[in-house]
Amino acid sequence: MLVLSCAAPAYPTHFLKSSVPKFAAIRASFTYDHPFVPEVAKAVDSLHSEFRSVDNLVAYNSSRVLKAFQNARVGFHHFAGCTGYGHDEAGGREALDQVFAEIVGAESAIVRSQFFSGTHAITCALFAFLRPGDELLAVAGAPYDTLEEVIGKRDSHGLGSLKDFGVMYREIPLAEDGGLDWDALTGALRPNTKCALIQRSCGYSWRRSLSVNEIGRAIKMIKIQNPNCLVMVDNCYGEFVESIEPPMVGADLIAGSLIKNPGGTVAPCGGYVAGRRKWVDAAAAHLSAPGLGIDCGSTPGDIMRAFFQGLFLAPQMVGEAIKGTFLVAEVMASEGYKVQPLPRIPRYDTVQAVQLGSRELLLAFCEAVQRSSPVGSFTKPVAGATAGYASEVIFADGTFIDGSTSELSCDGPLREPFAVFCQGGTHWTQWALVLEYLLKVQEENLRDGCWKERLQNVLFNVNQKRFKLRAFGRQRWEFGEVGRGKDGIFVREETWKTERRVVLVRFNQDFGFNGGGNGGGGGGKIDSNTARLLGNIALAIGLTYLSVTGQLGWVLDTIVSIWLLAVLVPIVGLGAFIWWAGRDIVQDSCPNCGNEFQIFKSFLNDELQLCPYCSQPFSVVDDKFVMEPVKFSNQTSKSKQAFNGFTPRSKKGKDSSAAVVDVEAEVKDAD
């Protein structure tokens, strides 16, 4: 099931520019000799032997499928389809069932469009086996999420789970290596254990998928302990991955979906149940009704033709998907991620799991896959609640068949360890292009600084405490983990596999900032732990906001501008003063005593100018000091008036002094 954000049909323009380069730009350097980026090309070159082995498998399985088609004498009339009850069907149902049964090595099979999904087909098989009082034993750990409500492990709200019908359930946990716990299985069967469920693929568990040989070994151990115990194999994602199928090693029933491996990317819907005839008929009765059998039900002709064609193409499509898993494992492991299965080991299903480690990376990976898909590349997959799943799940499948996992797709539950499960692909080069796209996006983000440090060596001191911030450039910031230790507040966030960089911020106690300082008068206790913590968080959020919104540069520019103004304004002012003083100062020698001094022209007035050394009057004419005749008056002159406007200049760097005498004279006529 694909959950898409249809309300927002396209990515925001700023998101495309800052985070995801356009595909045309990515492929600008494409050549036939070098179609991939170096990381992908290197992985492809190293997988030559694995790819050759897959080609051999495809050839073998294709020959088996071709032989089955020929034995069933498939003809054009089998594609006619039917309507209504389907009683006038031209033999297509019977031929398709016969072909499928021969391919998987079963007595009988029922392949129908009326199966909604693989879970539906498995449910029909389980209800064919189990009756009230019986026990269902899950041999390979917890089953797939969508089976939990079928079994009753998770509440089905009285809608008819096995538990509602009195069927008991038990499961054997996996061994430490992720495989079957053979020791636990040895004595696990009870007399009332009617059915043993074996899940071939990993599902949403971080474990190895099971080979058909391992399944055969488990079946033998089960039958030895309780010959009446029936074995049901969930065969989803396992068809055509090996040269044999579970019915060939003793499985009583297998079930799966046609929009996975056996549909060959062509089947638009449907599922199957195959195995022993008695139990196939019982499963068909649960699909329809007891007594109706398998010779009823209408199927349109175009769907019938797609079933035949998809089944014929399935070995080839599965081979391409297997090559894709090899390539994904090789590239992602080289980038430092945990992968399951490990690179270059034999495959037992078409699923490749990659442990990303965080919700954000899981969402980003699925978005990148959606962007690289042929259908719906302009949409954005969003996580949400999905019927049958206990956790939020995100799906990315830009596929021609809705929900098809035989086509290029990935999905994963939003829970620990945040693994993405990749599957499908009509050709392995699809995954090569997806991986190239992911690497290009990462490279673009690095070039734009999205994963580079936006703040370096930012240091404040407050109570000698420190906290760490991770800068993400233009990307939205979500705090993944916030904690307080002996060194202060730590904020952590995961990114793609790049060097971890942090910004260290300390606050200085001396400034009384953020609860620090030596304080001063009244009020509460400013330096309490709570106030200091809140202050640190506020600063962290402030720096974070400025960083992620791109305003930090503006703030830094403002700080630099203020600093420049604080430095330049005094310099300019001093220069202006010196320039003004140079034009306003008059320097000359006193015409009376010969001492040199300076005077500001702007301070000159109409009153008498006196020399600061000899106290004799003088005048300023054309920037020269000229002698002024003494004029006596009966007015009293104050000393500070006489010095008004003068700036005496010392000789040879020493202070000079002169005696100033305040003279009062009275003029009388001589006798």
Automatic annotation (TrEMBL):
The chain crosses the membrane at residues 533-555, 562-582. Gene3D superfamilies: Methioning gamme-lyase, C-terminal domain, Type I PLP-dependent aspartate aminotransferase-like (Major domain). Keywords: Membrane, Transmembrane, Transmembrane helix. Residues 634-644 have a biased composition (Polar residues). Residues 634-657 are annotated as: Disordered. Signal peptide: none annotated. This is Cys/Met metabolism, pyridoxal phosphate-dependent enzyme. It comes from Corchorus olitorius.
